[in-house]
Design brief:
single chain; alpha/beta; Rossmann fold; 3 domains; five-stranded parallel β-sheet; 15 helices; 16% strand; binds adenosine monophosphate; binds zinc ion
Length: 464
């Protein structure tokens, strides 16, 4: 079955055909690096990684571009409030530049821990100020801009189909406007360039033909995607919250300057939700991140597995119980896989069924069901392993790399080895009380045990 994907622009699932044979240009809006990513953000990147892997599995050469927003994203999408980077700087006392660097590094670490394939290009907004200024100058030449006392704005009234992606009710929005509009002419207008406020010292600002200041948030994606993928490419992705404002504005800019709606397919990952007690907003300063999961002895691949259990176009409600179930399922799969011998034959039947689910708009929950059916089937063990290897090119769970950690020491005393095995069993059952008890027992016998995502690691404590 050929690949079909849901396109938010047309609101339909339709066959995917690349613009250039054999190649796919994929642009994904990346993080705003004023803080760590929360697991909701990460769900969106897992979805995009599965998409990329599905494209590769369908034989495409994917050029994948991800931007890093390190300037210009204000605390309100309506061009009000403070720049998130400057606010982060006030919160921590660190410079905005150093915050951007630190959280970009932390983000890339999360990215790799989730086994997301490295993009072809990572691009930072602050490294592309010249491209953004040039893009805004194009918009100005084409007559789509106007100036207010605080910035240069995009005039959305000039575009008949502005907001089509979101099916925006423009008249309704204008009539019911609640936000302070400043000197904006229309509620949907947005800043292209914001002027540095007189008397306010900003850490991130540049000269431009319109005065000293900084770019609006949306222009970076139009400018950088044009640079790395051209002004008409295959797929543009982001979280569902981007549809109404950010992506509508990216489209408006590129359409005004280059006459295209940027991407042939617009794809959006739906949100991860949490109970009211646990927050999921970076700006609230209290949220669950990958490190929070690790501290509770979950490994990042278990979170990845959890993401695969829900279709990307439905909400996924996070709970510790569901993560626990994902970890248990993953552990089971890993142990089974490890025990299966190599050199089997791929089952064409199972692979065809798995691929059909993946190609049906990335139906990973059903693809996982095919996997578990295979596990229960009477397929010879070696063939099961060879077939699951194929599945894992899309699932990205890293089954081949995973190893249940056996003690590295060859001459480990038998009683220590048994304790370690017993503890491994307790860990796989997530019986932390028992695991802690055995840790203490090992400690009194001169061994320190560390829990690593890949398993237990034993270290001999040097005797004094
Ligand atoms: P940000 O770092 O805030 O710019 O967001 C990075 C990405 O995460 C964007 O694609 C957002 O749409 C997405 N996102 C934000 N919150 C959630 C959530 N709760 N669930 C899934 N994706 C989210
Ligand atoms: Zn973007």
């Amino acid at each position: 079955m050929p690949l079909e994907l849901y396109d938010t622009w047309s609101r339909t699932v339709r066959p995917f055909t690349p613009i250039h044979a054999g190649q796919v240009g994929l642009y994904c809006c990346g993080p705003t690096v004023y803080d760590h990513a929360h697991i909701g953000n990460l769900r969106t990147y897992v979805f995009q990684d599965v998409l990329r892997r599905a494209l590769i599995r369908n034989g495409y050469d994917v050029r994948h571009v991800v931007n890093i927003t390190d300037v210009g994203h204000l605390t309100s999408d309506a061009d009000e409030g403070e720049d998130k980077m400057e606010k982060g700087s006030r919160r921590t006392g660190e410079s905005a530049w150093s915050i951007a660097r630190r959280y970009t590094e932390a983000f890339v670490e999360d990215w790799r821990a989730l086994r997301l394939l490295d993009p072809t290009v990572w691009c930072r907004a602050t490294d592309h100020i010249a491209e953004q200024i040039a893009f805004i100058a194009e918009l100005e030449r084409a007559g789509y801009t106007y100036r207010t006392e605080d910035g240069l704005y995009f005039d959305t009234i000039k575009q008949d189909d502005y907001g089509f992606l979101a099916r925006l009710d423009r008249a309704g929005l204008q009539a019911g406007k609640r936000v302070a509009m400043g000197a904006k002419k229309t509620v949907t207008d947005f800043a292209l360039w914001k002027f540095a406020e007189p008397g306010v010292v900003r850490q991130m600002e540049w000269d431009s033909p319109w005065g000293r200041g900084f770019p609006g948030w949306h222009i970076e994606c139009s400018a950088m995607s044009a640079k790395y993928l051209g002004t008409w490419f295959d797929i543009h992705c982001g979280g569902e919250d981007h549809i109404a404002v950010h992506h509508s504005n990216e489209i408006a800019q590129t359409q005004a300057a280059h006459g295209t709606r940027l991407a042939n397919f617009w794809m959006h990952g739906h949100f991860l939700t949490l109970d009211a007690s646990a927050k999921m907003s970076k700006s609230s300063g209290d949220f669950i991140r990958l490190e929070t999961l690790r501290r509770r002895h979950f490994d990042p691949a278990a979170y990845r597995y959890l993401c695969l259990t829900a279709h990307y176009r439905s909400k996924l409600h996070f709970s510790w119980t569901s993560l626990d179930a994902a970890q248990t399922a993953l552990n089971r799969l890993r142990h089974l896989y490890e025990a299966w011998p190599d050199a089997g034959r791929v089952s064409a039947d199972f692979v065809a069924r798995f691929d059909a689910e993946v190609n049906d708009d990335l139906n990973l929950p059903r693809a996982l069901a095919v996997l578990w059916e295979l596990v229960k089937s009477d397929l010879p063990a070696a063939d099961a392993r060879a077939t699951v290897d194929q599945f894992d090119t899309v699932l990205g769970l890293g089954l081949r790399e995973w190893k249940s950690v056996k003690p590295v020491e060859h001459d480990l005393p038998q009683n220590i080895r048994s304790l370690l095995d017993e503890r491994e069993q307790a860990r796989s059952e997530r019986n932390w009380a028992k695991a802690d008890e055995i840790r203490k027992a090992l400690g009194t016998r001169g061994w320190k045990v560390e829990d690593r995502p890949e398993g237990q690691r034993l270290i001999a404590i040097a005797a004094d």
